[in-house]
Amino acid sequence: MARETGTVDFDAVVLAGGASARFGGVDKALIQVDGITLLDRVLKATNSARSTVVVGPERPVCRQVDWATEDPPSGGPVAGIAAGFGKGESPLVVVVSCDLPWLTESDVATLITNIGDHDGFGLRDSGGREQRLAAAYRRTALAAALEAIGDPRNQSVRRLFAGLDLAWSDPTPAADDADTWTDLTPR
């Protein structure tokens, strides 16, 4: 079933394949905040996506998704984006990591409605840092960036998006990613 945010369809790619080293090897995607796993929190935020692919090992989740694995496994976030990118057809692709505990459906709608004439629109975290893994991209621009980078294995996310015209939100806690246990405390 196609769903829409505003009047623009979008697909979602959720990156959930990291090693979670700073969490002591605990699967970060399954850590719960207020009784909901980090992965399910992001899946709820992207609920309006026409299609959703989660890149990482299959886990129990709150809604229907497709699954993909980066090639090679553990090849990094750019390899994850490449693995998930081919699953949809919508003109916009929302790329998010599973470690965004404060991201909401309203934040995702903000990404879609503010892309304007840019190649992408992303969120800045509370400290003002641009979060390329909390952003919406034009499918054509993302396809060109992936083609230009070649082999996506162990490539830099910053390098992947370097040639794109990106716009950014004001700082927001919605883009604060959880890299440590302390980051799971509401802001």
Plain-language structure description:
The protein has 187 residues and is of the alpha/beta class. 22% of the residues lie in helices and 24% in strands. The protein has a single domain (10-180), classed as Spore Coat Polysaccharide Biosynthesis Protein SpsA, Chain A (Alpha-Beta Complex), CATH 3.90.550. A seven-stranded mixed sheet has the order 5-4-1-6-8-7-9, with helices on both faces. A two-stranded antiparallel ribbon has the order 2-3.
What structural keywords apply?
187 residues; alpha/beta; Spore Coat Polysaccharide Biosynthesis Protein SpsA, Chain A; 7-stranded mixed β-sheet; two-stranded antiparallel sheet; 5 helices; 9 strands; globular; disordered N terminus; magnesium; Nucleotide-diphossugar_trans; molybdenum cofactor biosynthesis; GTP binding
Layout of secondary structure:
Blueprint: E1 10-15, E2 32-33, E3 36-37, H1 38-45, E4 51-55, E5 66-68, H2 77-85, E6 92-97, H3 105-113, E7 120-124, E8 130-138, H4 139-149, H5 157-160, E9 166-171
Parallel strand pairs: 1-4, 1-6, 4-5, 7-9
Antiparallel strand pairs: 2-3, 6-8, 7-8
Q: Brief description of this entry?
A:
The chain has 187 residues and is an alpha/beta fold. Helix content is 22%, strand content 24%. It is globular.
Number of helices: 5
N-C termini distance: 35 Å
CATH homologous superfamily caption: Spore Coat Polysaccharide Biosynthesis Protein SpsA, Chain A
Largest sheet: 7 strands, mixed
Order of strands across the main sheet: 5-4-1-6-8-7-9
Can you name the CATH architecture?
Alpha-Beta Complex
CATH top level is Alpha Beta
**CATH fold field value:** Spore Coat Polysaccharide Biosynthesis Protein SpsA, Chain A
Domain MobA-like NTP transferase: 12-161
InterPro entries: MobA-like_NTP_Trfase, Molybde_CF_guanTrfase, Nucleotide-diphossugar_trans
Protein name: Molybdopterin-guanine dinucleotide biosynthesis protein A
Organism: Kribbella voronezhensis
